[in-house]
Structure formats: C-alpha cells, structure tokens
Amino acid sequence: MKIHEYQGKQLFRTAGVAVPEGIVAKTPAEAAQAFETLGGSLAVVKSQIHAGGRGKGTFQEFPEQRGVVLVRSAEEARANAERMLGSTLVTIQTGPEGKQVNTLFVEQGLDIARELYLGIVVDREVGGPVLIMSSEGGMEIEAVAKETPEKILSEPFDAAAGLYPYQARKLAYALGLDDAAVRSAEKFLPRICRFFVDADCSMTEINPLVVTSDGQLVALDAKVSFDDNALFRHKSLVELRDLSEEDPAEVRAADTGLSYVKLDGNIGCLVNGAGLAMSTMDLIKLHGGEPANFLDVGGGASEDQVTEAFRIILADSNVKAVLVNIFGGIMRCDVIVAALLNAYEKVGFSVPLVVRLEGTNVEQAREMLKASGRDIITATDLTDAAEKVVQSLQA
Amino acid sequence: MSILVSRSTRVITQGITGRTGLFHAQQCRAYAAECQPGVDVFVGGVTPGKGGTTVDDFPVFNSVIEAREKTGANTSMVFVPPPFCADAILEAADAGMELIVAITEGIPVMDMLRVRRGLEKSSSRLIGPNCPGVITPGIAKIGIMPGYIHRPGTIGIISKSGTLTYEAAWQLGRVGLGQSTAVGIGGDPINGTNYIDLLKMFQDDPGTEGILMIGEIGGSAEQEAAEYIRSSVTKPVAGFIAGQTAPPGKRMGHAGAIISGGGGTAAEKMAALRDVGVVVSDSPGGMGEAMKTAMAG
Predict the structure, then answer these.
(1) ipTM
(2) To the nearest whole number, what is the mean pLDDT of chain B?
C-alpha cells in the first residue's frame, strides 16, 4: 500500500524524523492561507499523487504548469493552486493518462546546502533491510546506479537492533558531511531505519534528503509503501489509503481476495496461482495475442469469489475473449466450473470462452461443462488453450 | 532415492484444527498410506490450547516439543495463519524438527526476517513459506499438491510457483519422466531454502538424474543459481521463467514477483540460465519437452 507524501511526512514527524513545516490544502484559498500561516518569504506547493517525477511533470490542462512550484506570495500560491487542483498531472511515472490532483501540500522553503538520496528496502539476498544513500540527491536512483555505481552506498542493518550510530557516522563521513551534519545524521538515520521496521514498510525513499545551511538533515520528500501482508497490525496506517489513486477493478478484486492487475490487451485470463497466471499471459503473447489482465484466484477461492472474478474480467470492455486455465490443487476444478456456469447465468458471456482444466476433481468438472450445453471451447493443454483463444478472436 | 522426504519422515501438522490444515493433513495421510501401507507417516498435529483432543484420529498436542516427544515426528507441515506463522516456524525449529514445510501465504516480510535470524542458530531446514510443499512420489507428500500428477522417477523439480509445479510435473509425465522429489520454494522475497541449496542436494542425490528449475520475475535468485550451476552442477538442467510479459512495478500475485528498478526481468534470468547451458523453454507449455531435450543432450 502506498501513501501520499504529506502522510509520509506526518509519520516521519511522529517518528522523530525531521521534515519541513507544511500544511495540506484542498482549495486555492487554503493554499493561500497556508502560505500566510507558514509565515516565510518562500514556500513550495506540491501536488499530492502516488507517483514520482512531480517536479518535472506538467498538467494536461496547463502545459506550462509544473507539479511542484516555488511561490513567493499568498497570491502566487492561490494562482498556482487554481491551475493544479482538479487538473491532470502527467509525470514519467503516471503514464500518458496522468493523475488528477486533489490535494496540495504547501511547505516552508529551506536554505539548502546539499541534496542527498536516501532509500530503505528489504534486500532478499542480504536477507534483511538495507539503507541506501547517495550524494546524488534529486536524481533518479536507477540512473545513478547504472552510470556511477560508486556513488551508491549500501549499509545493511539488523531489523531488530536497528541502525547503529557508528553505521550512521560511516555513511555520513563517506558522503563528506561536515561535523554538524554528521551529528544530525547520527539521529536522523537510525530513526528513519527504526520507522521502516516498525511500520512494516516495503520501501521508504527520501529524494532529496537535504542538508540545510546550518547542518541539519531534513526529509524534503517522503515516498513510503507498506507490506500489504502486515497491514493487519497497523490499523491506523490502513486509514491513510487513498482509493482514488488505485485502479477501481484492482481494488474490487483485492476486496474479494483476488489478485488482479489490469493490462492493455484483449484476452481476459482467469488462472489459479501466480506463477501459472504469469505463464498464461506469457503464452498468450507467444501465440500472438495480448493479455488483458493478470488474475490469480488463489488456492482456496470459493464459488462466489470466482464468480466475482468473471465479473471483473467481463467488466473490462477491452476483453474480446476469455481464457480460463486451472490446475487444481487446493482449488477444485468443479468449483471453477460451477462458478463459470453461475457467471453464465448471472453475468452473461458475449465473448468466446476457452477453458483448460487439470487437477483435483477434473473428471467431475468436465462432466459438468459437457452437461451444461454451453458454448464453451475446451482445450487439452496450455499450448492448445493459447492457440484456441487467439484463434477465437479471429473468428 | 530422493531428497528431504524419505521413508523415515514422520510429520506433524501445525494448525491441524483449522479447516485447510485438517483437509490437507487428511490428503497427505491418504497419499502416504497408499505409498507405504501400514505405516503412520502423518502422526498428529499441534494447536495451542487444544492439546489432548483428536481431530479425525489425529492426536492434537499443545506444543511442537510435546508432539515430537509423544510421536517421534521429525518434520512439521505448517498451516498456521499469517499473523502467528513466524512464531509457529520458530517453535518447530526450537523443538528440533529437521524439516519445516511452511505452506502459509501472506507472512509479513519483517516476520520472515526474524525467522531467518532464528534459524541461523538451528539445524532445521525451512521450505517456503507460501509454497506448495515437497513431494517424493511413491513415498509421501508434505503439502497441498495433487498426488496423482506426480510419478516416481529421476527428475528433481525446484519451483517458486505452486500451480506451475503441477503443470511441470504433468508435462514431465507426458514425456515419460517422473520425479525423485519436487520442491516448491515459495514466491516470497524471504524464504527458508533457495535454489542453490536444492541444486546441491539434487546434484548429490544418486536418485536424481536431471533437474527442472522453474523461476519467476523479481530478485536475482535465478541468476545466482545459474552461477552455481556453472561451477557445481554436472547433471542436466532445464528451466522456465514465468513473467516475460509482466509490467514493471506491479506485483504479480506473489510478494516477490515484481520487476523493480529495471532488475529481475524474465529476459535477464533466461539469458543467465542459457549462458550456463540450461535448456530454457520460452513457453510454459514446453517445460516437459525442455527437460527431455536436456536429458538427451
């Protein structure tokens, strides 16, 4: 689960991690008021969407307007907010369709001496969390890693013990920070690492992490995402979820306990198991088709869940054919067929349907399909299924 | 011969009083009874607070250590729900279980980091979590795979994915190959046993003549396995990588299956494996044929 920058900064503040003063604004008047309240001569107005690249991004409605702007008066804050709120911001991470901006974050301007990069992830190979820092703040970290890998510093730390102060100093000296900033890093870095572990983050990124002219480390950005599997123990974090930032079909699927990712093709897929679902997409592509989605109904889906899965697939108007590929282990083939026939009743199929079944209770399931008298194309194996579904589009 | 599961394997099920735990304990018991008539392989279960009762003739114990003392079990199959699963795995290790097979899906990553740390001091081997389990066809299965698709034979399967393992076993059957042992290592970012551990075991197992390795996008475990194959595996290896069409930044069901920062793509992994002589199938429909080709080469 991802959250907005302003939400991440509120969590940082609670965790003792330094952030600039900032105020949320949902109207141009609030933006102007925020500038007054902050009281400085300079403020930054930042679009709040779940995507990076906002500073360089522009609005569809106002091509000259950037997603993050520096303002020097309340009036300037209001004028920018009027163009930004309700408009569509396009960045390198949003795709060409962009994202509507509903919230702004107005922040005090800082006297910046240096810009650094900070990221924390769980490294699978190390088997633990790793704090990543770089002197190249504000840059795309992937590009830095590729072009100047020597500028990336990685410091694994123990999840239970946290980052030790000596590790913070090691990084600070390697980044060439002055004495005041080293002392600030000794506090800042262990705290952000503690936050990462305590909140069950899957990623925390601060880009840029700035050093102010008086030697304080301050998080100028906050990109935080959480481990979905751990949300059960973070009720307050769940409340930060912004559904308007997510694909409605993906939300609906997740609520039903299904794993669904929308894609651009026209062949809907319903598969059990993530590996087989990915493979089914691969196979469709190999045979010249384009998958419309990834959909894993999981190991123990009920008939209702599978019916809902069919509804989600068929609600996508791009879908011109459906491929069902089930290898029943926990998932029984007869449950899939019962749901399939149920979906025929309740949802109606106007597109060709190819079904490939194997595994637990497959004989019973095949009998049910045959007895139904429905116009369903059956396939004997994976390759046969992919060929038939691609052919069905041409018919 | 086989790896991990043999005739001396005795299994308890943690979380046996849950619906899924009981169902699969029953399925596993039935499979073992067919393979080894008259031998009790699945000897009981553990649910704290329900010790002293029985479910469908399985004795239930309060703790793994009690279950081990009373039944002689050396293996645990874990179906405990995600919030409590890491603790259950650590309990099994503490009780001296040689093999722990964790089926549970959805354990928080931070919990698995604690488990990994805890297992460093233990001699227990963890398979999973979020995996279908382990089967040595003709001996026993510890997990949720359908028994009938697996035939005894000489191919070792190592896979991140459950249903794709079934698919592979089924395809092997169609080209006349069975399995020594099939192992699902799970699709989570942090797991107990990786490709390299199992490649080594299969390489050392006289009953295994070839290895089928099934990977997916995310991380770099397949690339590291390729390095290991180059240096230390002399048996023929075939492979497949799922997720060639997966878009970057999207989690494809498994917590570990995500292409991030341009790394972990299927193309990279396939190239790394081909580079060390692994016969890699482009199509998931060609895994059986790829294995046959590798064996003939």
Answers:
(1) 0.89
(2) 94
